[in-house]
Amino acid sequence: MPAAFPGGTSVTRLSVYTGACADGLEGGTPHLHTASTEGYVVIGGRGALQTLDTRGFRETELAAGSTVWFTPGTVHRAVNRGGLQVVVVMANAGLPEAGDAVMTFPPEIMADPERYRAAATLPAGEQEETMEAAAMRRRELAVRGFRALARSAAGGDPGPLERFYDHAVALVRPKVAAWRETWERTVAEETRHTAAVLDALARGDGAHLRASALLESPQSPETRWGMCGRLRTHDVLHPVEPPAGTGQQSQGQ
User: Residue 127: its pLDDT value, please?
Assistant: First the structure.
C-alpha cells in the first residue's frame, strides 16, 4: 500500500518573514517553481500574494481562510501585513525540496549557474543571526530582480521575463533525471495504485480495504530558514504509524 501523503503532495507551515525590504514591503523571497503547483491556505494574519506571469503583475489579498494556488512559471512573492501564517501544500512531494524553485535574481546572476548557486545557498551550521542575515540578503537580491521584471512587464516589454524563464530551465535541467525518479516513486506510484483500486472495485474486490492504515508525519521540532519565511516541515515521504490509543470511543460517535 502506498504511504504517500494524499495526492503525492507535501505540507509545510509557513510564518512569512517580517522586516522591510528596500521597497518598504515585508515578506518572502520572490521565486517560481518549474514543475510543481503550490497552494496557500491562510490560517492567520493578513497580507498579499504578488504574482507575475506572461499576463502581467497581480496582487491578491490574503487573510485567514484565503486559499489560492499557482502553477509552474508563476513568479510569486508573499507580502506580510501582519502575522501572516500559511499552510503550504506543494505538488510533487520531494521535487520542491530537490531544487524545483528558482529565485528572481538579477540577469547577470541567473545567466551563471555558479553565481546563482552561491547566491541561493544559505550557509550550513551557522548561528541563527548569521543564517538570518544570509536569508535577508538573498531575499533582497531576489526582490531587486523581481521588481525589474515587473517594471519591464508593466512597460510592455516581456523580454526580461522570457529570458528569466530560459535561465530557470537551464538551471534545473541537470536535476530532471533525479526528479523523475522521485516522481515515479511518489506521485506516479500513487496514481498507479488508485488505478488498481478502481479496477478492483469494478470487479467487486475490496481486499485493499482490509489493508487500511493510519499514518502520521510528526511536525519538525525546529523551524528552518525558507525562501518565504520560517518553515516547520512535515516529512511526508517517511510517515509513521501513530501510537495506539485507548480504544475508547468518544461520546456521540
Answer: 86
**Tally of CA atoms within 13 A in the half-sphere of 177 that contains its CB:** 1
Q: Cell for 166?
A: 530560459
- Cα 42–chain centre separation: 14
Contact between 75 and 29 under an 8 Å Cβ cutoff? The reply is: no
pLDDT category, 249, cuts 50, 70, 90? low
Torsion of CA 96, 99, 104, 105, to 10 degrees: 160
- Residue 33: what residue type? H
The pair phi, psi for residue 28, each rounded to 5°, is -95, -175
Exposure string over 157-185, b if 16+ CB within 10 A, otherwise e: eeebbeebbebbeebbeeeeeebeebbeb
What pLDDT, in 10s, does the model give residues 106-149? Answer: 999 999 999 999 999 998 877 889 999 999 999 999 999 999 99
Nearest Cα to Cα of residue 226 among 117, 112, 34, 88 = 88
| Average pLDDT, rounded, for the chain | 92
Rounded Cα–Cα distance for residues 104 and 110 (Å): 8
Question: Which SS3 state, helix, strand or coil, does residue 67 take?
Answer: strand
* Residue 238 in grid coordinates: 517517511
| Contact present, 169 and 116 (Cβ < 8 Å) | no
CA distance 185 to 138: 32
State the Cα angle at 25 between 23 and 28, rounded to 5°. 110
For the stretch 181-239, pLDDT in tens is 999 988 999 999 999 999 999 999 999 999 998 998 887 878 889 999 999 888 887 88
